[in-house]
Amino acid sequence: MGNLWKQWLANLGWSQPLLKTLDIMLVLGLTYMMLVIISERRTLWMVRGFILLMLASAVSGFLQLQLLNFVLQSLVYGCAVAMAITLQSEFRRFLEQLGRGEFRQLFQTSSLAVPKSYSVIDEIVDAVRELSKNRIGALVIIETTGPIDERDFSVPGVKLNAEVSKELLQTIFQPKTLLHDGATLIRGSRIVSSGIILPLSGRTASRQLGTRHRAAMGITERVENCICVVVSEETGSISLAERGTLNRPLTITKLRDSLETLFSPTVDREAVAPGLLSLGRQIRGKSMALISRLLGLPSTASRDKK
Fold this sequence. Notes:
Blueprint: H1 2-11, H2 16-37, H3 41-62, H4 66-86, H5 88-99, H6 103-106, H7 118-133, E1 138-143, E2 158-163, H8 166-172, E3 183-187, E4 190-196, H9 211-222, E5 226-231, E6 238-242, E7 245-250, H10 252-262, H11 274-295, H12 300-305
Parallel strand pairs: 1-3
Antiparallel strand pairs: 1-5, 2-4, 3-4, 5-6, 6-7
């Protein structure tokens, strides 16, 4: 079958260097798709390590280092299986887009799951103001650069899928409700779920900090694409947790400024992994230039000059 395929390509005039170029372009395209689909920084580092491992295996095969190539290939296969298990949601999204024929979306960066307007921030801030005034404890998780995997939660909580509003947030955290003890997850302009139990931080914290504060520190240590707003039940003080660090106490004005800065439209995905995403853009640009050169088409730069 392989010989027939080579003969058919030879009849079409496809030379060996052209086939190798096509092979490299396809690998670069697949790599770029993976970088686009996966947005979490720690996962991107894992993908980059996997790509380096594949490159090392290819180089060892080219240099005919048979034993090293066998070991590296075994590692590549094992890592591929482990990543398929670890990144189930990302691979599922990739296969769904592939099955629906959404090939253009595979090469496009997805929009951030952040509030689309300041009205959402206003609702959150107004709710926190009332909760703080009445000394009602609250813990709100806000996604920043992409969806959080529910496996990072100790207990996923109850699905709500409701529009963000200050009335609903205040109702959720009322002491007599069943969901007030857990955290509430906000994705974009929607309240995804409530009653979420979070892993606690292992850091040594002040005795003044309660379970909500340690939970906010714990989830932001574990997941980088989220922040947590905490309202103390005892003092009504407001805190903001990001990357495992607790900023407290905050005034309402300071909280609003922090959220508006964080969700400013100028903040893009390069804040998540600038090196990898800029590399992906360079790969895409060079691939398009190579295709234009092979097909005899004018380059983008030459078209712009005209």
